[in-house]
Amino acid sequence: MKNKIIGPNDPALNVLDSQLKAHPEWETELTILPWAEYQGKVNDALQSKISPFQAVCIPGHIWLPGYADAGQLTPFEEIIPQLSEERIHSYQKADIMPSVSAECQFKGSQYILPLFTDGHILFIRKDIFPDIESIVDPRSLPDLLGKALLKEGMYPFALKAHSSEILTDWLPYLWSFGAEILDDKSEPAFNSQEAIQALEFYCNLKRFCPPDTHNYGNQEIADALKLGSVAMAASWGGQAAMIMDDANLYKNNFEFSVFNSPWNATWGVSIPANLPQKEQINILNVLYAAASPEQDFMVTQIAGSPVRSTSYSQTELSKYSWLSAQFEMLKRCRTLPVTPILSKYLGPLYQAVYLAFIGEKSPQKALNDAANLG
Questions:
Q1: 0.90 exceeded by the pTM?
Q2: SS in 3 state form for 280-319?
Q3: Which domain holds residue 340?
Q4: Residue 360 has pLDDT above 80, yes or no
Q5: Helix (H, G, I), strand (E, B), or coil: what is residue 233?
Q6: pLDDT tens digit string along 2-37?
Q7: Is 124 found in the same domain as 113?
Q8: CATH code of residue 236
Q9: 280 and 169 in one domain?
Q10: What's the chain's average pLDDT?
Q11: Which of 81, 54, 52 is nearest to 286 (CA)?
Q12: What gap in Å lies between CA 101 and CA 103, rounded to an integer?
């Protein structure tokens, strides 16, 4: 194949893969890699003399600032003028949701072609929580969970508290307490008194959860919801189609809400800077064709989290039970601070939140230690 793209094992990328296979004339293939080795492979490609891949999938604001600030990705503005007017028009860039479009940029330039989003929505058994609001303040959860009309063998809640997921799971709680990750000088703010209170609150929610919720990632949350062992949990909109498939015996008993300040990351495709411009133009031409409005409808069907406004029409909203909550999430969502400085704190902060959650450190000590390690 002339063009090679790499991405992680996320179900939403099946849509792009299908598009590429349906158009052999594009001479482009997608290789899916395990998440555990994916970022290392991206780093190697961007740091090599010439990238072995013509495009790489990246999670929006989490990785973009570091790569773009280091000059390792190509601004689309440098290559879009080389595409045909027909190709540019058919892509319909103005149709991309505003929050998604903003996340694909760094310092005024676009570096990501968006494919799908991963933001928080709440999956709720309405037979257990009949009176829940469409917008939920995390601070109200203890009262809500304490009133759950539970069935035998069921827990009211589950947290996605695996060590690789817990930081982003905690963010809506952090923000609900008025805390931030960094201050306006890009110094740690995640060990403020408000942040410590938010982590204490999050840890105290364990009493409503399965005892092994500290091991729960995407699959465990999905299984618990589908098997009926938990009555409420937050997961990604990009997991919604899989969670609400026909294997879910309770699919007709679910409703969906969003946190008042949900977190979201937009996954998309970026083009390495260490490629000849001819290759950059060619792959963007292919991607503009592949990431069409029609593909976005397929993203809803297969994953659940499209990126275009037209995918949230009344017709589409009526087809998918979770899509109204997903739409609201995109209008409310926040991101981590968009600065390359953040990267040095992420590892220590993930570890700090997890150690506090499993009781190895107090929330105060864990967050203070992370601030000092960054």
A1: yes
A2: HHHHHHHHHHHCCHHHHHHHHHHCCCCCEHHHHCHHHHHH
A3: 118-263+336-373
A4: yes
A5: strand
A6: 899 999 988 889 999 999 999 999 999 999 999 889
A7: no
A8: 3.40.190.10
A9: no
A10: 96
A11: 54
A12: 5
